[in-house]
Amino acid sequence: MSHNTGSIRIAEPAVLPDWAARSVDLANPRIGAKALYASDDFFAEVARMLNPEPAQFVPGKYDDNGKWMDGWETRRKRTTGHDWCLVKLGRKGTIRGFDVDTSHFTGNYAPAVSIEATVSDSDDVAALKDAKWVEILPSTSLSGNSHHLLRANSDAAFTHLRVNIYPDGGIARLRVYGQPVGVFEGRGDELVDLVALENGGRPVAWNDAHFGTAANLILPGRGINMGDGWETRRRREPGNDWCILQLGAAGTIEKIEVDTAHFKGNYPDRCSIQAAFVDGGTDQSVITQSMFWPVLLPEQKLSMDAIHSFAEQIAKLGPVTHVRLNIIPDGGVSRLRLWGKVAR
Q: In which pathway does it act (predicted)?
């Protein structure tokens, strides 16, 4: 049962500090994260809290239990204790911090949160309840309709989180900013996608992302639709659009795939890729340097809605850490795959 009146409101994105901007969201379901258990999720199921899309508020939308909320929301607690949930991270990783987002939760947000972490081979709830948990975010006060960017206090790597709210209430979104670890262990000399999000790749910078974000380029699988890629506005001046990506580990690239899935009247005419081994510096300094990086893939003609594979055209630059994808002059690309061998 649901009905809508009025216009849907979309949460504003968080302004990310450097430690978060340079991280992967380890709680993204698209790399395998999932909510495993909640002590209570009467008003809004806990899985919604991990949705990579920004939280929405839909005026007038109700279900059988009450007002529909886009997040995790428990009932009003009438006993002692507090509510909590278990989250499996998409990849084992070190955690730099969190965005605990209470967007659209005003009279019903959780007043406080703490987060514990553990390492487990099992997703079994009973086993996880008995696991040894380490507190990585002490109890912290929350406010309504806000992003809370909070630092973790551990350098260790973890696989699962226990999120405690005191005593009850709602969280719209949980982002877990960190870096996957051990992704390439035991992979030998096999070709791996060095830039994939699940392997620790991340978008560093881009000149425009009007219709779709650069982060979509490195998501798993092929694009779902035209919105599931990186697409720039129509360029009305000379030059070309670009984005810079950091690999999950330094490596030598041997095969490149540029996928224009769903882009038909708006794919780039051509593309090229530059690359470099970057040691130190900041994201801002990388942008400046990237103009002078050597060419990894010379300009190549692209076509609509197709996977373009390149191998013999790739320059032998040795190990690199960053690439700059140039699209000429503008348009949309769904996915970029950089198959190569990790530098040992």
A: Nitrogen metabolism; (S)-allantoin degradation; (S)-ureidoglycolate from allantoate (aminidohydrolase route): step 1/1
- Say yes or no: do domains 9-180 and 192-342 share a fold: yes
Which CATH number, 3.65.10.10, 2.60.120.260, 2.60.40.10, 2.40.50.140, labels domain 192-342? 2.60.120.260
Would you kindly state where each structural domain of the chain is located, as residue ranges?
A: 9-180, 192-342
The predicted-structure confidence for 143-190, as pLDDT tens digits, reads as follows 999 999 999 999 999 999 999 999 999 999 999 999 999 888 888 788
- Give residues with Cβ within 8 angstroms of 332, minimum separation 6: 211, 212, 226, 229, 230, 231, 232, 260, 262, 263, 266, 267, 268
Contacts of 288 (CB under 8 A, 6+ apart): none
| DSSP alpha helix (H) spans, 227-343 | 283-290
* Per-residue pLDDT tens digits for 281-310: 888 999 999 999 999 999 999 999 999 999
Which of 227, 244, 251, 271 shows the shortest CA–CA distance to 339?
251
How many alpha carbons fall within 13 Å on the CB side of residue 136?
29
pLDDT reported for residue 318:
97
The rounded distance, in Å, linking the Cα atoms of 74 and 326 is 47
Q: Rounded distance, CA 298 to CA 312, Å?
A: 11
Q: Give the pLDDT band of residue 5 (cuts 50, 70, 90).
A: very low
**CA atoms lying within 13 Å on the CB side of residue 41:** 20
**Measured distance CA(260)–CA(41) in Å, rounded:** 40
